[in-house]
What we know:
Elements: H1 2-43, H2 46-59, E1 67-73, E2 81-92, H3 95-98, E3 104-114, E4 121-125, E5 133-136, E6 140-150, E7 153-155, E8 161-169, E9 172-174, E10 180-187, H4 198-211, E11 228-232, H5 236-245, E12 249-253, E13 256-260, E14 268-276, E15 281-284, E16 293-296, E17 300-302, E18 306-308, E19 311-315, E20 319-321, E21 326-329, E22 332-336, E23 340-342, E24 347-350, E25 353-357, E26 361-363, E27 368-371, E28 374-378, E29 393-395, E30 400-403, E31 408-411, E32 415-417, E33 422-425, E34 431-435, E35 442-446, E36 451-454, E37 457-462, E38 465-468, E39 475-477, E40 483-486, E41 490-492, E42 495-498, E43 501-505, E44 509-511, E45 528-531, E46 533-537, E47 551-555, E48 562-565, E49 575-578, E50 586-589, E51 596-604, E52 609-611, E53 617-618, E54 624-628, E55 631-634, E56 637-639, E57 655-656
Parallel strand pairs: 4-6, 4-54, 5-7, 5-55, 6-8, 6-56, 7-9, 8-10, 11-14, 13-15, 14-16, 14-17, 15-18, 16-19, 17-20, 18-21, 19-22, 20-23, 21-24, 22-25, 23-26, 24-27, 25-28, 26-29, 27-30, 28-31, 29-32, 30-33, 31-34, 32-35, 33-36, 34-37, 35-38, 36-39, 37-40, 38-41, 39-42, 40-43, 41-44, 42-45, ...
Antiparallel strand pairs: 1-2, 2-3, 3-57, 12-13
Helix pairs in contact: 1-2
Amino acid sequence: MLPALLGVAALVAEYGHSLSVQASNQRTADLAAYAGALAYSKSNSTSLMTSAAKRVGELNGVAPANVAVDLVDSPRDASKKSVRAVVTVDNPMFLATILGASNTLRIVALSYAEVGAGVSSCILALDGTKSGVTLSGGTRITASSCAVSSNAKIEVPCGTTIAAQSVSYNSAITQPCNGVTAGTITRAVTPDPLAGNAAVATARARFATLAGQSSPAAPSVPSPAGGYSIEFGYNETTTKSQAAAAGCSASQSGSTWTLTCPQGAGRVYNFANITIAGGINLSFNPSGDAATTYNFSGPLSVSANTTFGPGTYNFGGEVRADSYGSTTFGAGTYNFAQTFRAGGSGTVTFGTGTFNFARGMMTSGSVVTTFGAGTFNMGRSTTSCNGVSTFSLCNGASGATTFAGPSTFRFEGGIYNGGGSTLTMGSGSTNIFQIGPSGGGDAIYLGGGSRTILADATTFELGGHLWAPFGGGSCLIISRAAHHDIRGNFNAAGAVVMGAGVYTIDGYFALGASGGGGSPCPGYSNTVKATDVTIVVSGKTTSSTGSCAGTAFCVAAGYHNVEITAPTTGTLAKLAVIGPASGTAGATFAEGGSSGKISGAFYFPTGPITMSGGAGVSGGSYCLQLIGSLINLSGGTTAVSECIAGIGGGAARPRLVQ
C-alpha cells in the first residue's frame, strides 16, 4: 500500500501546489502582457514594452529571466499586433521522484494582449509646448478613418468642426459649440510615427552628398593663333587666291561660294578672319570628314545661308550666326574659345558631336537653333544675359533652341531661358545634367511665358537655385531621375511638371511667393503636377517674400491646382514632403493657394504647418497625413487620412485576447 499512498500524496500535495503556482503565474502573465501593451501603445518601442512586462513579473515574484516578451500578430485578428508574455518556472518535486518521476515540473503560463492599435493619427501636432491643433474661420476637418491628435491643446471654436474616428489632446480641448464629432476623445501623448524612421534618415543624409558635389569647370579650348583670312564676297579673283593660300579651293555659283579642302586624317587648316558679305551664301567643305581639323583664330560672323561640313572646328574668336537665312554645321567636334551667338530670324543647325563653349552660348531675336545629340561643355559668358547675370546658356530668343538626345550637359554657369522663348534639352531617358551657378547663383533662371523641357536623366545636379519667381505663365518640365540634387532654393511662379524621383533641396521650396501660377503646361490639367515624388527640404534658407516669408515650404497665390503624389513603393513609399530635422522653419498653404491634393505624409516635425485665407489641401481619393510641431488651419476645408501607420493618441486601449 505504501507506493499507492506516496502516489496519492504526490498528486494531492505536489501537483496540487503546482496548479496553484500555474494560476498565480497566469495572472502574472496577464499583467505582464497588458503592461507591455500599454507601454508599446504609448511609445511604439519594443524595448520599453519588454522592460515594462519584465518589471511586472518581478513585482509578482517571477525573475526577469523567466518572463519572455515579444510583439506578434494577434491570435484573434492577424491584422493587429499583440504583446505575448510567457512565464516559465520549474517547480521542485520530492514525493513524485520516489515513483520515478522527474524532480521538477515545468509550469508555463501564456497570455496575449492586443496593443491599442487601429486608429493612427492623420493630423498630429507633436510639440507639447506649442499651441497644438488650432482651427479658425470656418475650417472643417474630415478624418473619418483616423485620429486628430495634439501633444498640446486642441482649439475648435464656433463655426469650425472636426469629424474624426478619434481625437486626443494632452493639455486641453476647447469646443464651445461642440464642434468635435469623434468615436473617442481622450487625453494622451502621441508619439511621432516617423521618429527614427530609416527612410527619412536616409533621405536627409543626401544633403551630405550635395555638399560633396562640385559644379563643372569651363572647358579647356584651344585658341589657335595666326592663319589665313578669306573674304567671301563679290571679288572672285581675291576669294580664290585667299582660299588657295590656305590650302583649299573656292568656287562660286551665283550668290553661293563653296570652299573645298582636301580631307584625311591629320589634315589641319588654319584660318584667321572669315568674312561673308551681305547676300552671300557659303558652303564650307560640305563633303568633309570628322578627321579633318579647322582652326579659326579670329572672329567669325556668318549671315544668309551658310553650311559647314563635318570635322573638328576650333574657334579662337567669337562666333556670330546673326543670319536671316540658315546656318548649318555638320557632325563633328566644335570648340569655341569665346561665346557663340545666334540671332536674327533664321535657323542655326549643328550635327551630332562634342561641343566645347569656353564662354558659353547666347541667342537672340527669333532664331531657331538646333543641335544633334552630343556632349555639351560650356563655360560662363563674360557678358550679362538680358541684364540678369552671366550664364553658360543665354536663350533670349523668342524662337527656340533644341538639343537632341540623349546628351550630356556640363555647364559652368547656369541656364537662362527668357520670356517667350522655348528651350528643349535632350530626349530619351539617359541624359546627364550637371549645371553650375550663374554669376547670380542660379542654376536655372526662367522668364515669364517661357517654356523649358528637360528630358529624363540618369544624373540631375543643379549647383545653384532653380529660380523662376517672376515667371508667371511659364512652363517647366523637369526630368524624371532617381535623384534631383539642388544645392539651392526651388522658387517658381509658373506651371511645373516634376518628373518622378527624390528632390533634395538644400534651401526652401516655394510656389507663388511673388505671385504667378496661371495655366498648366500643355497636355496637363494641373498647374503643378508631381507624381511618384518625394520632396526633401533642408530649410537652410527660407523664403523672404510675402506670405511665404520664413517658410521652408510654401504654396501661395495663384496656385489653385497643385497635385503632389508620393511613391507607392520603395523605401520612400507614402512620404510626400520631408521638412527640416531641426530649426523652426515651417510650411504654409497661403491665401489663394487652394484646391491642392497631396497624397502622402507631409512631415515637418520641428516646424509649424499653417493654412490660411481660403487655402486648402486634401488627400482627395488618396491619403494626406499632416505631422508638424503645431498645426494652424483657417478659412478652408481639409480632408485627411492615415498614410504612415503609428499609434494615435485616441486609439483603443489594450485588451487581453488570450
